[in-house]
């Protein structure tokens, strides 16, 4: 196996210049779900246009397998801005095509990050006939935030949860963990995610499955769908003493191939296997009771296309001597994964073996400030192999900016200064996220350790981050919140840790 891995080194070179991420594969259709799903979308000026676009892609990826309709899932979006705004009501877009276009057409409003106001507005709309919301269906709120809010969220969020709304939070910034974990539904490990905006696809399936746990109707439905199998679950209707279930299933385009199984009344689930990929099946569950009559339950399930792994390789948590490698998906047909990694340029190659059930590992004992080529190879149980490569960069040792400080220069202007970072710094990148007004990014030479930040409106809180730039990547940034005094107070600013 090692010989194969070393021979494949020659294939690395075509990846060295980078390659486009593969397209996302088709998702199985999710039926038998009913609920009102509301996205609370940060549309304020603290979010860049790029971040806003990535979040829209994430929203569509999250919901696109659902079935939409008055007896299925309905979706709406509320913008977080100076004044909260509903993009469209729940009952307007009831097909995948129209909803996808509506999300694509959503435009950023800019303005302040008044999340508390948006939550109060959401409380009204989630239970409003005028907004297309329905009584007696599960309510789910997904709040996507950069972790920055200009007003209080605790009280309106608690009111929502008291009314039965399940709250999921996705933070793409450096939000306060204690504040956000208190705001999310419990437990936070299931309802709160911290992830970089470029890594949102990593959490999509996990978050979708958690939402399904809330909105999955209490009737026959399919879970754990693969290209060749799915698991059917249903509510407890019988017992071993009172009857049994007859299960019938067949491809939608060939009902003559119907298969039948009998299941004990004590069971509430059954896995169907050896199915055809990318095929829709009609399934019927018939309770056979000697005590009561129970109506048959039906569902329609579409198996996945033949799953190929890895389709994505992502690098995260890079340090001077290590980084984490993650990949997706992880189908049951994979026996193990091999990680082949080595510095560029160079021929020194090392190999890691990873169990087929895992989707990440940490690569350690690396050289600082070095570019590595990483190839993840899936070894299928059938003997087939599939590889995908990505480049990773370790950080410079001691590559963090220190002692970021500010000086009032008058006329809505601050001077930001910092101490130099260690190592061979090529320059510094200074980002200012204004509460009011557009964000800005300044790049300066390594000899310069201060910049002037202008157009900082009175009474606003602004986020300033400084990162050192090295040959292969940016170093660790240092961020501070700076509050400008209102115009009625003495000129100046307040620095927040």
Report what the structure shows.
The chain is an alpha+beta fold and 497 residues long. 16% of the residues lie in helices and 36% in strands. It is built from nine helices and 28 strands. The strands form seven sheets. The chain has a six-stranded mixed β-sheet with strand order 3-2-1-4-5-6, with helices on both faces. Strands 24-23-26-27-28 form a five-stranded antiparallel β-sheet, with no helix packed on it. Strand 1, helix 3 and strand 2 form a beta-alpha-beta unit. Helix 5 runs parallel beside helix 6. The longest helix has 15 residues. The two termini are 52 Å apart.
Concise overview:
With 497 residues, this protein is α+β, with helices and mostly antiparallel strands.
Keywords:
497 residues, alpha+beta, 5-stranded antiparallel sheet, disordered N terminus
- Categorize the overall geometry: flat
> What profile does the largest beta sheet have?
6 strands, mixed
How many helical elements?
Answer: 9
Numbering strands along the chain, what is their spatial order in the largest sheet?
3-2-1-4-5-6
Task: Give the distance, in angstroms, between the N- and C-terminal Cα atoms.
Answer: 52 Å
Which percent range fits the helix content?
A: 10-25%
Radius of gyration: 26 Å
Number of E strands? 28
Average pLDDT, all residues: 84
Strand percentage: 35-45%
Low-pLDDT segments: 1-23
Category by helix and strand content: alpha+beta
Could you give the topology of this structure?
Elements: H1 2-7, H2 9-12, E1 35-42, H3 49-63, E2 73-80, E3 85-88, H4 96-104, H5 115-125, E4 139-145, H6 154-162, E5 166-171, H7 177-183, H8 188-191, E6 192-194, H9 201-215, E7 221-223, E8 230-233, E9 243-251, E10 259-264, E11 269-272, E12 280-289, E13 297-302, E14 312-316, E15 323-328, E16 334-343, E17 350-355, E18 360-363, E19 371-380, E20 385-393, E21 402-410, E22 413-419, E23 427-433, E24 440-444, E25 450-453, E26 461-469, E27 478-484, E28 493-496
Parallel strand pairs: 1-2, 1-4, 4-5, 5-6
Antiparallel strand pairs: 2-3, 7-8, 8-11, 9-10, 9-12, 12-13, 14-15, 15-18, 16-17, 16-19, 19-20, 21-22, 22-25, 23-24, 23-26, 26-27, 27-28
């Amino acid at each position: 196996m090692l010989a194969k891995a070393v021979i494949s080194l020659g294939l690395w070179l075509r990846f060295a210049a980078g390659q486009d991420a593969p397209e996302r594969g088709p998702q199985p259709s999710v039926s038998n779900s009913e609920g009102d799903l509301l996205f609370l979308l940060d549309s304020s000026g603290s979010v860049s246009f790029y971040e806003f676009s990535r979040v829209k892609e994430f929203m569509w990826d999250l919901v696109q397998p659902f079935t939409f309709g008055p007896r299925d899932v309905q979706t709406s979006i509320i913008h977080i801005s100076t004044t909260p705004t509903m993009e469209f009501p729940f009952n307007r877009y009831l097909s995948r095509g129209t909803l996808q276009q509506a999300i694509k057409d959503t435009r950023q409003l800019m303005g302040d990050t008044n999340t508390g106001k948006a939550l109060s507005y959401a409380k009204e709309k989630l239970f409003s006939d005028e907004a297309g919301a329905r009584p007696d269906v599960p309510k789910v709120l997904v709040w996507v935030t950069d972790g920055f809010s200009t007003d209080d969220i605790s009280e309106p969020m608690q009111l929502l949860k008291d009314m039965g709304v399940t709250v999921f939070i996705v933070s793409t910034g450096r939000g306060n963990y204690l504040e956000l974990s208190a705001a999310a539904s419990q437990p936070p490990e299931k309802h709160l995610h911290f992830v970089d905006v470029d890594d949102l696809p990593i959490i999509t399936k996990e978050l979708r499955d958690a939402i399904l746990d809330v909105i999955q109707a209490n009737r026959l439905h399919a879970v754990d769908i693969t290209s060749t199998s799915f698991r059917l679950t249903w509510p407890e209707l019988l017992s071993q003493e009172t009857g049994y279930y007859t299960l019938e299933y067949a491809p939608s385009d060939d009902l003559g191939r119907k298969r039948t199984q009998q299941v004990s009344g004590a069971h509430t689930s059954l896995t169907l296997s050896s199915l055809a990929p990318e095929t829709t099946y009609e399934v019927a569950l018939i309770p056979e009771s000697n005590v009561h009559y129970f109506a048959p339950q039906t569902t329609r399930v579409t198996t996945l296309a033949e799953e190929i792994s890895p389709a994505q390789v992502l690098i995260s948590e890079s340090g001077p001597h290590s980084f984490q490698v993650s990949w997706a998906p992880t189908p049951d047909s994979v026996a193990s994964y091999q990680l082949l990694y080595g510095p560029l340029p160079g021929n020194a190659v090392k190999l890691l073996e990873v169990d087929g059930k895992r989707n990440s590992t940490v690569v350690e004992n690396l050289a600082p400030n070095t570019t590595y080529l990483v190839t993840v190879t899936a070894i299928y149980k059938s003997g087939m192999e599939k590889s995908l490569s990505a480049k990773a960069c370790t950080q410079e040792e001691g590559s963090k900016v220190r002692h970021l400080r500010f000086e009032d220069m008058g006329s809505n202007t601050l001077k930001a200064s910092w101490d130099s970072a260690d190592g061979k710094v090529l320059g510094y990148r200074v980002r200012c996220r204004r509460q009011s007004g557009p964000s800005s990014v300044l790049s300066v030479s390594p000899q310069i350790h201060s910049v002037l930040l202008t157009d900082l409106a009175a009474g606003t809180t602004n986020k300033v981050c400084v990162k050192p730039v090295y040959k292969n990547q940016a170093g660790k940034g240092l961020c501070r919140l700076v509050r400008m005094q209102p115009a009625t107070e003495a000129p100046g600013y307040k620095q927040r840790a």
